[in-house]
Automatic annotation (TrEMBL):
GO terms for biological process: tyrosine biosynthetic process. It comes from the Bacteria. Residues 1-282 form the Prephenate/arogenate dehydrogenase domain. Pfam families: F420_oxidored (PF03807). Keywords: Oxidoreductase. This is Prephenate dehydrogenase (NADP+). The keyword Oxidoreductase applies. One of its GO terms (molecular function) is prephenate dehydrogenase (NADP+) activity.
Length: 418
C-alpha cells in the first residue's frame, strides 16, 4: 500500500518517517518553497517528495492531510479532485468538524474516510501514545485495512464511529485544558514575574502547573487556536469554565465562606466520587521538577485555577475520568493535580482559607481572573488572529525557559506515568 502525506510539517514528517520505518512506501508534499529542503532531508530516509498534493493524491492508496485545521478546507478543495479512485483518506487535525465538512464537500463519493487524531505532539514517537481512529465512511473491509495501517504506528488505538463525540471530548481534554494553562501564563506575564521565583509557587502541584504551561507555550500557536476556535463544543465549555471561575472569585472577594465551601465540596463529591479510579500522582516526584535556583519556603496558594476547573466539571455534569480515553499529557496532569488537591483534606482546607482570607495572594488571583476572561472573550468571538497574538505575547515573556520547560516536562510526564 502506498501512503501519501499532504503537509510535511512537524506532525506530517513524524507520520511519514514512522510509516516508512514500518515498511510502507511513503510519498509526500508540502509548499513549493520547501520542496528542495524536504527532498534533501527525507528522501535519504526512504520518503519520496513530490511537487504537490495533486501528485500525492493521484499516486496514493491511503492519503493523510496533515495541515492546520483552519486551512483544511482550502487544502482539500485544491487537491480532492486528484484523489485516486477508491482511496482511503484521513486527516490529522485535532478538531474534526471542519475536516469532515471539507471531506464531504470536496472528495469523490467513491473515497473511503477513516480519519485520525494523535493525542501527542511531534516531540514524541507515536509508539505507546494514544491515537483516536474515527470511522466516518468505510466498508468493513476497507476499515480493517485502515486499522492495519494505523496499527503499524504501535500507538494505543481508540476507535470511534462519531467525529462529533471526538470533538466533544477533545473540547475538555485539550481546548479548555490549554486555555487554563494559557491563562496562568498570561497572568504571570501580566504580573511581571516568573512563578518559579515566587514562594507561592514552590510546591509539587505548582511545578506541574509551571512546566505544563511552558510546555504548551513552547509549541506553535496555530495548534491551540484551531482547537479552541473551530471546535463547536469548545466555546461552550470555555464559557462554563470562565463562569465557574467568576462565581468563585466573587465569593472570594466577598469572603463568603459558607457558599464558597458549599460549591467546592459539591464539586469534590461529584468529580472525585468514590467510584472513580484515581490517578494518584506522586507528590515526591512532582516536587523534584522545579525550575527555581533557590530554596523557597513555600507559601500557601489558593489554587484558583484548579478549584475553577473542578467546579466547572461539576456545573457541566462532566466526569473527566471518562474523558481519559482521549487523554493528552496536559489533561492527565491537570486532572491528576486537581485530584491530588481535592483528595488531600489538609491541602484543600489550606487552599480554601488562602482563597478567602490571604490578601498576599489576592493580586495573583486577580491577574488569573482577568486572564481567564481575556482568553474566554477571544475564543467566544472566534478570533483566531487575536488568539495567536495573545499566545505569542505570553510565549515571548517565557522565551528563555521554554526549552527547559519542555525538556523537564517530558521527563516529568514519563516519571509520573510509571
Amino acid at each position: 500500500m502506498q501512503i501519501g502525506i499532504i503537509g510535511l510539517g512537524d506532525m506530517g514528517k513524524l507520520y511519514a518517517l514512522s510509516f516508512a520505518a514500518s515498511g510502507y512506501k511513503v510519498c509526500g508534499a508540502d509548499m513549493p518553497l520547501r520542496f528542495a529542503d524536504l527532498k534533501k532531508e527525507l528522501e535519504p530516509k526512504g520518503i519520496e517528495i513530490l511537487v504537490d498534493g495533486h501528485e500525492v493524491s493521484r499516486k496514493s492508496d491511503f492519503i493523510i492531510y496533515c495541515v492546520e485545521a483552519e486551512k483544511i478546507d482550502e487544502v482539500v478543495s485544491t487537491f480532492a479532485r486528484s484523489t485516486k479512485f477508491g482511496a482511503i483518506v484521513s486527516g490529522q487535525t485535532s478538531v474534526k468538524h471542519p475536516e469532515i465538512a471539507a471531506f464531504e464537500k470536496y472528495l469523490p463519493e467513491d473515497v473511503q474516510i477513516v480519519t485520525c487524531h494523535s493525542l501527542h505532539g511531534p516531540a514524541f514517537s507515536p509508539e505507546g501514545q494514544t491515537l483516536v481512529v474515527v470511522r466516518h465512511r468505510a466498508t468493513d473491509e476497507v476499515y480493517a485495512k485502515a486499522l492495519q495501517v494505523y496499527q503499524s504506528l504501535k500507538s494505543i488505538i481508540i476507535e470511534m464511529d462519531d467525529y462529533k463525540e471526538h470533538d466533544r471530548i477533545v473540547a475538555d481534554t485539550q481546548a479548555v485544558t490549554h486555555m487554563g494553562f494559557e491563562s496562568m501564563g498570561s497572568a504571570w506575564k501580566n504580573a511581571g514575574f516568573f512563578p518559579w521565583d515566587n514562594p507561592a509557587y514552590a510546591g509539587g502541584i505548582d511545578n506541574v502547573k509551571i512546566l505544563t504551561t511552558l510546555r504548551i507555550f513552547s509549541y506553535k500557536s496555530h495548534i491551540y487556536a484551531g482547537l479552541a476556535i473551530l471546535n463547536p463544543y469548545a466555546q461552550k465549555q470555555v464559557k462554563y469554565y470562565a463562569q465557574a471561575e467568576s462565581e468563585l472569585f466573587k465569593l472570594m472577594i466577598c469572603e463568603n465562606e459558607a457558599e464558597f465551601r458549599a460549591k467546592i465540596f459539591a464539586a469534590r463529591d461529584f468529580v472525585f466520587h468514590e467510584s472513580r479510579q484515581l490517578l494518584l500522582l506522586d507528590d515526591k516526584i512532582m516536587k523534584e521538577f522545579s525550575l527555581s535556583d533557590a530554596e523557597h519556603k513555600q507559601k500557601p496558594n489558593s489554587h484558583l485555577s484548579l478549584l475553577s476547573m473542578v467546579y466547572a466539571w461539576y456545573k457541566m455534569g462532566v466526569n473527566p475520568y471518562d474523558n481519559l480515553i482521549c487523554q493528552t499529557p496536559p489533561f492527565k496532569l491537570r486532572l491528576g493535580i486537581a485530584e491530588y488537591l481535592f483528595k488531600n483534606e489538609d491541602m484543600l482546607e489550606e487552599s480554601i482559607q488562602t482563597a478567602l482570607y490571604d490578601k498576599s495572594i489576592r493580586g495573583d488571583d486577580l491577574e488569573f481572573h482577568t486572564a481567564v476572561h481575556e482568553w474566554a472573550s477571544i475564543i467566544g468571538y472566534g478570533d483566531i488572529n487575536g488568539y495567536k497574538a495573545h499566545f505569542e505575547a505570553a510565549k515571548s515573556f517565557f522565551a528563555n525557559r521554554l526549552n527547559d520547560g519542555r525538556d523537564l516536562s517530558a521527563e516529568m510526564i514519563k516519571r509520573l506515568g510509571k
